[in-house]
Each structure stands twice: as structure tokens, then as C-alpha cells.
Write a structure and sequence with these properties.
Helix 3 runs parallel beside helix 7 and helix 7 packs antiparallel against helix 8. A hairpin with a 5-residue loop joins strand 3 and strand 4. The radius of gyration is 23 Å and the shape is globular. It is mainly alpha-helical. It is built from 14 helices and four strands. 46% of the residues are buried. The N terminus and C terminus are likely disordered.
Length: 364
């Protein structure tokens, strides 16, 4: 029987007691819940993610809403990213319990809903980072047009459209996820939250779409934007480092590091579906993606708790002077778009960005 994966966590179903929902043609997925070692490792990783990610993202949200006096477009995008990541981190406690007990105790609606929300976070994160990169592109390459092309009002509308879009394109994760019975090696029955595609073509469609739309296309836009930004900066004599560019570039790189393995496994699984069951090539590809799925899924979760750590390192120079408000000062220091106004050139705009922290302090 051909096998498939699912978004973020994947589960074994060696046999099923629900033939009404899943016929012999159902393409079932493989998972880590049948292995004591991998479930223990997965539960430990997700526990650490929960402990770091929830307070970290809540601190970002508090810093922006309560302490930041200048809310730029970049800050607004970071706020949305922190809300998406923080909400996902709150959901990890359900997966920790699932992995620890090796049994799904939360019912079918939660099974569908939790994995659906995981997918929306994946799309929202990469789309928000893409919007950050496009905004930097307009601000640096066309600084005099930023008010018209990338104003705060325009970006707010783009964010609203983005959220509607991500909730729509994540529907496949909602449709293909079900709770079903499974029997382990000791023939004990347990409930698993697993996906079951009725056709192998559904596997190919879902994971090809997920990788292309959720990674390849937006990441291509991001890379192209930064190539244009670097070319523009090289054309100027202004060589000072820009805080906002460095911070956003670090976010982009961090996201790529944690999500590239996951999407690589998606591609391998899709390629495996092109070969007949029992063929040598299919067996080799299955041996690559099946044991790797748990690890790459855990890395994907880690990406949502990495940004608070990244911001802390980026804003460490503010900690001694500003205390708990250090992250708010960091975000105020990245307000490149605030400094670009009518009559302001690229050099002046970049100068404002790289000295944003001092500008804030001078206002006191």
C-alpha cells in the first residue's frame, strides 16, 4: 500500500476498524506514535518549544502593544507573526500529550482543527515574511514611493487579505484528517489522528501545493527582493549597516533553516508516489522520508519559538539601559519606513533606520 505524509506530525495506521470511512484504496500515512523512542523525543522537543515559545511570543506582543511608541509597518508585521507563532505554541501542549500517551484523547473535531491551524500558521509565517521583504524592497529601491506603494494602510489591507487566504488554502488539512482506530505491535487498540487520502493523486496534489505555495514561490520572491535591495545599496556610497535589514534577513534565514528539511521530505514523498508499490526506487525513497518525517516536523515547530530568541540577541544592546522595554526599543530602531517621507532620500532614510534607537532616546 502506498503511504503519504501530513502537515507537521504524521501517524501510523497499520490496520483500521472503520471500513466505512477508509476503504482498502485509502492511502494511509506513517507516524511516530508507534515507536516509544521517537514519541519520547518528540514530546521532549515540543515541551521545550512550548516553554520557550509561549512566553517568548507573548513578550513580543506585549512589547509592541504596551511599550512601543512608534509602530512602523515592520513592527506591525512582526506583531502579526508573533500572534501566529504564539497561538501555535499554545497548541503544542495537545501534541505533547498525544505523543506521551500515544493515543488521541481529544476527539475528531480537535483532530481536524488542530492540524488545520498548524497549516494556517505555516502559510501565515512565510507570507508575513514575504510582506516584510517586499516592504523593504519598496523602502530601499523606491524610497519616494513608499508612502503610496507600502503605506501602513496598504499593508494593513494586505495582512487582512493574507489571513483570509491562509485560512482558505489550509482547507485540505481539515478535510483529510480523521480519528481512527489503530493496533500496535502488542495488538492493543488506540486512537490516532491520521490523514487518509483516498487516492495517491491526492497525496501528490496536497504536498506539491503545500511546498510550492508555502515555500518555493514566497521564498523565491524573498530572495529576489533581497538581491534587488543589495544591488541598490551597492549603488550608493552609504555603507553603514542597517538594523532593519539585518533583523529581517535573519528572520528569513531562520525560517528557511527550519522549514527547508520539512519541504524537502514533502518533495521526496511526492516523488515516491510516482513509482509502483514494491519497486526498488519507491522502497529507497520511503526509507528516506518515513523515518525523517518526525525530525523535520519537530524542526518546523521550533521555527515558531526561534524568533523571540533572535530578537533578544538583536536587542541585547538595549537591555542595560531600557530593561524590560528593550524589545520595544529594538522595534522602534527598525522603523525604516517611518523615516522615509517626502523629500527624504535613500541615504537619509537609511541613516534614520541605523540610528533609530538614538532617535528614540533623544525624544525623551
Amino acid at each position: 500500500m502506498a503511504k503519504n505524509g501530513s502537515s507537521l506530525l504524521h501517524y501510523v495506521n497499520k490496520s483500521t476498524s472503520t471500513p466505512v470511512l477508509f476503504t482498502e484504496d485509502t492511502v494511509e500515512d506513517s507516524s511516530i506514535v508507534s515507536n516509544d523512542a521517537t514519541t519520547a523525543i518528540g514530546a521532549l522537543i515540543l515541551s521545550l518549544v512550548f516553554l520557550l515559545g509561549v512566553p517568548g511570543n507573548l513578550f513580543i506582543i506585549w512589547s509592541i502593544l504596551a511599550r512601543a511608541r512608534r509602530r512602523s509597518v515592520t513592527t506591525l508585521l512582526i506583531l502579526n507573526l508573533a500572534c501566529a507563532d504564539g497561538f501555535l505554541m499554545c497548541l503544542t501542549i495537545f501534541f505533547v500529550i498525544y505523543l506521551a500517551r500515544q493515543n488521541w484523547d481529544f476527539g475528531n473535531p480537535m483532530c481536524k482543527g488542530l492540524f488545520y491551524l498548524c497549516n494556517t500558521n505555516m502559510y501565515a509565517s512565510i507570507f508575513l515574511i514575504t510582506l516584510m521583504s517586499l516592504h523593504r524592497l519598496v523602502a530601499v529601491v523606491w524610497p519616494h514611493r513608499v508612502a503610496a506603494l507600502a503605506s501602513k494602510k496598504t499593508v494593513v489591507r494586505a495582512i487582512a487579505v493574507m489571513w483570509v487566504l491562509v485560512f482558505f488554502i489550509s482547507i485540505p488539512a481539515l478535510l483529510f484528517r480523521e480519528v481512527r482506530d489503530d493496533h500496535d505491535e502488542q495488538n492493543k487498540t488506540r486512537l490516532v489522528c491520521a490523514s487518509g487520502h483516498t487516492l495517491s493523486q491526492h497525496v501528490v496534489y496536497q504536498y506539491t501545493f503545500e511546498t510550492v505555495v508555502g515555500f518555493l514561490v514566497p521564498y523565491g520572491v524573498i530572495v529576489s527582493s533581497y538581491i534587488c535591495i543589495l544591488r541598490r545599496l551597492r549603488q550608493t556610497k552609504f555603507r553603514r549597516k542597517v538594523r532593519s535589514e539585518k533583523l529581517i534577513l535573519a528572520i528569513v534565514v531562520m525560517f528557511g533553516i527550519f522549514w527547508l528539511p520539512y519541504h524537502s521530505i514533502n518533495i521526496i514523498e511526492v516523488v515516491a508516489e510516482q513509482f509502483e508499490d514494491g519497486s526498488t526506487m519507491k522502497k529507497r525513497l520511503d526509507m528516506v522520508w518515513q523515518p525523517s518525517r518526525a525530525v523535520t516536523s519537530a524542526l518546523a515547530f521550533i521555527s515558531s519559538c526561534a524568533n523571540p530568541i533572535l530578537y533578544t540577541f538583536a536587542g541585547k544592546s538595549y537591555i542595560r539601559e531600557d530593561g524590560m522595554a528593550f524589545m520595544a526599543r529594538l522595534f522602534e530602531g527598525t522603523s525604516l519606513d517611518t523615516g522615509i517621507r517626502k523629500g527624504t532620500g535613500l541615504k537619509d532614510a537609511l541613516s534614520f533606520s541605523s540610528t533609530g534607537g538614538n532617535a528614540v532616546k533623544n525624544e525623551k
